[in-house]
TrEMBL record:
Stated name of the protein: Small ribosomal subunit biogenesis GTPase RsgA
Gene (name only): rsgA
Organism: Tepidanaerobacter acetatoxydans (strain DSM 21804 / JCM 16047 / Re1)
Role: One of several proteins that assist in the late maturation steps of the functional core of the 30S ribosomal subunit. Helps release RbfA from mature subunits. May play a role in the assembly of ribosomal proteins into the subunit. Circularly permuted GTPase that catalyzes slow GTP hydrolysis, GTPase activity is stimulated by the 30S ribosomal subunit.
Subcellular location: Cytoplasm
PROSITE patterns: ENGC_GTPASE, G_CP
Cofactors required: Zn(2+)
Amino acid sequence: MEEKMNYINLRRYGLSDRFEQEAACYEGMFLARVSEQNHCLYKVISEQGELQASVSGKLAYNAGDSMSFPAVGDWVMIDRPDGNAGNAIIRHILKRKSAFVRKAAGTSNTTQIVAANIDVIFICMSLNADFNLRRLERYLSIAWDSMATPVIVLTKADLCDDLQQRLIEIASVSIGTDVIVCSCMEENGYQSVNSYISEGKTIAFVGSSGVGKSTLINRLMGRDILVTKEIRKDDDRGRHATTHRQLLILPNGGIVIDTPGMRELHLYAGNLPKAFEDIEELATHCKYKDCSHVAEPGCAIKRAIEAGELSEKRFENYMKLQKEIEYEGLSSRQLEQERIRRMFGSKGEMKRAIRRAKNKNNR
Ligand SMILES: Nc1nc2c(ncn2[C@@H]2O[C@H](COP(=O)(O)OP(=O)(O)OP(=O)(O)O)[C@@H](O)[C@H]2O)c(=O)[nH]1
Ligand SMILES: [Zn+2]
């Protein structure tokens, strides 16, 4: 069979100067982006097209934990298979600019990367049944921890008759995050989402089941590529037999990562200081540095709650999430340092980041 060379421009898959420069350090290897993962079998997109791939023995051997394995969205250095036989071999993972982490299945306290190098994360919440500020706080803390930029997407606007009230409620928990409203019932109901997506930007959607993520992605794609709820109900399997792609290119040039792991994203190591900036700020005004905000005199948080400036529910959720994170051991120093190690290129940057974290802990 004649070999067809379809040269793929990796910029379309989100390649930026930063990754290209890092890739140049690995002579003789090829750059590729992970587009699919099924246990230890991967698919990667290289300039030569999509290839099956597996990790090298050395990478697996040196991997201290599952964070050291590639995930969908990762940029990796590969050796290509000889001729048409065999898999490509993934030898290195390039430094991630963002990563979603979760506790691995089972009882062990290990973590795993769900997806990497996402620029914008759309946190989807419906304006009817799914509306829940505490859940939104949870997702925001995960998003801030990942280093991707969160945008709140309120879906099913057509089913809400008190949008203004909802927006006021959202504003109280979404400091520093844009909020957009959409509906699949309107012709241009997703225009607002599109304006956050541009060529080469990698995006993902998280949110509870049924809030309309698939509907949204189908609209952005301009065709029904994902199976939505009512189609599933019909059990019309034949029509949608194609397997679900974990990495999609949108007509406007954006790249969607939609892995099972992202769909199941709940609570991993969240970034509470960022998601609850207002509370952390208040706490600096407590009389005692180690105030537990329970019964101490001069507690600025208690004062704010009494004055109606801070919602008691929000504060309770903050305390609850903090406990969960401590309990799961996910915000342990070990994980934090691992995260820093992966996120920051140079040693100097890493040292500065660790110093900042230390100062914060000693405050
Ligand atoms: N009224 C209304 N219904 C919507 C809207 N968007 C989605 N739906 C409906 O909500 C249901 C669930 O939508 P999906 O897109 O399958 O939800 P999902 O978030 O992808 O769900 P999972 O695949 O389980 O994660 C479907 O019946 C959609 O038709 C909307 O803007 N308005
Ligand atoms: Zn206090």
